[in-house]
Amino acid sequence: MRFRGIVVAVLLLVAAGCGADEEASAAGDGATTTAPGPDLSEVEFVDETGAEEVEVEARDNVFDAEYIEVEAGTTITFRNDGRNPHNVLPVVEGEVSEIPTEAFDPGDEATITFDEVGDVAYYCSLHGTTTKGMVGAVRVVEPGTGS
Ligand SMILES: [Cu+2]
């Protein structure tokens, strides 16, 4: 239930931020708006740095937690707790390994290791696009520098 409040807050922030983004694009700076995937500028990441086991649930049709922060080298277990098949695809193809639909039926678990520092956005192509719907992101930080 705690996450529902965060999601609502994020949606409000995204809505409020639209005007500013358009102005930035029009001004041609382009530096902050070109990353593929969902807009992560106003997102609150759940801090999982230092956790021994990190899990993300895929439900119908949302990832929970949608946005998490981990240390480089962390292996995240994705578990399908929904009643439908899902998949986990990096927005930037090849950035991390993917979990195909065939390997992610209800009850299935699969892992992805995040070795490179940076933001990795992912989505389920059955219930989302690279920017909307069933999307999530992992913020990967240097070990020992978590927020
Ligand atoms: Cu899905």
TrEMBL record:
Ranges of residues in domain Blue (type 1) copper: 54-140
GO MF: copper ion binding; electron transfer activity
Keywords annotated in UniProt: Copper, Metal-binding, Signal
Signal peptide: 1-20
InterPro entries given in the database record: BlueCu_1, Cupredoxin, ET_Amicyanin
Name listed for the protein in its UniProt record: Plastocyanin/azurin family copper-binding protein
Pfam families (UniProt xref): Copper-bind
Record Gene3D superfamilies: Cupredoxins - blue copper proteins
